[in-house]
Amino acid sequence: MRLLIVEDEKRLALSLAAGLRAEGFAVDVVHDGLEGLHRAGDGAYDLVVLDIMLPGMNGYRVCAALRAAGHEVPILMLTAKDGEYDEAEGLDTGADDYLTKPFSYVVLVARVRALLRRRGRGASPVLRAGALTVDTASRRVLVGDGEVTLTAKEFAVLEHLATRAGEVVSKAEILEHVWDFAYEGDPNIVEVYVSALRRKLGPETIGTVRGAGYRLEAR
User: Fold this and answer.
1) Edge-to-edge strands, sheet with 26-30
2) Is the pTM of this model over 0.70?
3) Angstrom distance (rounded) from CA 23 to CA 155
4) Residues 14-69: pLDDT tens digits?
5) Residue 60 burial (C-beta neighbours within 10 Å; 0-12, 13-18, 19+)
6) 134 in Cβ contact with 141 (< 8 Å)
7) How many CB atoms lie within 10 A of CB 182?
């Protein structure tokens, strides 16, 4: 899953990004409301973590503009302000959840995961493809009755393929959703992780469609 953090407190933003990347998310960070609106409006994100007090355009206006343009991306608002009226205003502009600073990082991650589970494709956190089970809530992977241990990045690649089980997913799309926009390394990194997943899950689990991408076999 690819997340966007819009937060002008740079130390906090970078700390959150590092923690969320360690959880297996691809994370982009911007520090200005106008740039946040521009990036979120591109539609490449699965969730936006949005501060309210921002330069350029405040979070309320960013959220309202996204909703007015028809974007349904989940938005988790962050603010140093508190009180029921501030929370009501955030939710009234279209935010899906609200977290007041200072907050527990563990709680933030739990809120992020809950919002992602509720997004569009339904509430079930469990994805299945044949003998493979991917539990996105507990971060557990089973092949039959046996549990397989994956790294955070391996899980992120598998999770993205599992949401599209039986469909062809391009290398570029995997890069876009699993690595952040600042990644400038070798795009063949995707092949490295797919190879690692095949070793752990079985060589027939992920097929290669020459010139098109990869497919998690649903059989």
Assistant:
1) 26-30, 2-6, 47-51, 75-79, 97-100
2) no
3) 9
4) 999 999 988 888 899 999 999 999 999 987 888 999 998 899 999 999 999 999 99
5) buried
6) yes
7) 9
| Tokens at 92, concatenated | 């009234």
User: Contact, 13 vs 7, CB < 8 A?
Assistant: yes
- For strands 132-135 and 126-129, give the pairing: antiparallel
Angle of the 84-92 helix axis to the 59-68 helix axis, nearest 10: 30
Q: Where are the alpha helices (DSSP H) in 42-135?
A: 59-68, 84-92, 105-118
Question: Taking the alpha carbons of 91, 92, 93, 96 in that order, is the dihedral positive or negative?
Answer: positive
Three-state secondary structure call for residue 38: helix
Distances (CA, A) of 207 to 63, 74, 146: 39, 31, 21
Strand 2-6 and strand 47-51: pairing?
parallel
Give me the helices (H) in 96-188, please: 105-118, 152-162, 171-178
What tokens were used for 61?
């206006």
